[in-house]
Structures are given as structure tokens and as C-alpha cells.
């Protein structure tokens, strides 16, 4: 199962939210996401308030996120906050803590509590 449609929807929701576009206008980051079930790589790139996504390995990453398909799907579809699986050890994150907090805020603003 590919996670790309879920990430594309996540990017679309971010890009349609004016508040998020303003909040992220100077947050230029590349997030690499690895599905530990299949080993597939995906990425999210924030540039000037716009989020893009794609599939495949990418070498330049400000943040790396690893988790099972179930966890990645739940986080990026709004079923759970990234903080929950991160604290449980089900979502591994390499990068700055403030970037993880930003991702948590983004999901909250898109999907609500």
C-alpha cells in the first residue's frame, strides 16, 4: 500500500489553509518519511508556505520520520497527533524538536483535536 495519496491529501489541506500558509511562509524544511513495513520513502517539502510531496528517497532532509504504514496513515490523515506515537516509540523522528512540534501544530490546525 502506498502512502502517497494520504500525503498528497495532507499537502492539499495544508495548501488550502490560509493560516497555515502564513505560519509556514518561512519554514523551509524537507521531511523524509519512511514506511517501515515496506521500506518505501516519501517526502514533504515546505517552501514559502507551500507544501509539496513525492515518493522516493531524497538525500537532503531536515527531519526524518519513520513508522509503520498504520502509524503514518493515522498521523497524516488526522486520526492521531504525531506526539502520541512519538511518545510511545511507534514514530521515530530525527531532527529538531521544534520541527516535530511544528508538525504537531500543522496536523492540529488541519484536522482539529
Structure, described:
Helix content is 42%, strand content 26%. By secondary structure, the protein is of the alpha+beta class. It has one domain: Nonspecific Lipid-transfer Protein, Chain A (2-Layer Sandwich), CATH 3.30.1050.10. It starts with a helix and ends with a helix. 27% of the residues are buried.
Which secondary structure elements does this structure contain, and how are they paired or packed?
Elements: H1 4-16, H2 18-23, E1 29-35, E2 41-47, E3 50-55, E4 63-67, H3 69-76, H4 83-88, E5 91-94, H5 97-111
Q: Could you list the spans in which at least 5 consecutive residues all have pLDDT below 50?
A: none
CATH topology label: Nonspecific Lipid-transfer Protein, Chain A
CATH homologous superfamily (4th level) name = SCP2 sterol-binding domain
Could you spell the SSE succession in H and E letters?
HHEEEEHHEH
| CATH architecture term | 2-Layer Sandwich
Rg of Cα set: 13 Å
Number of helices: 5
The first-level CATH class name? Alpha Beta
How many separate domains make up the residues? 1
Question: Roughly what percent helix?
Answer: 40-55%
Please identify the structural class as seen in this structure. alpha+beta
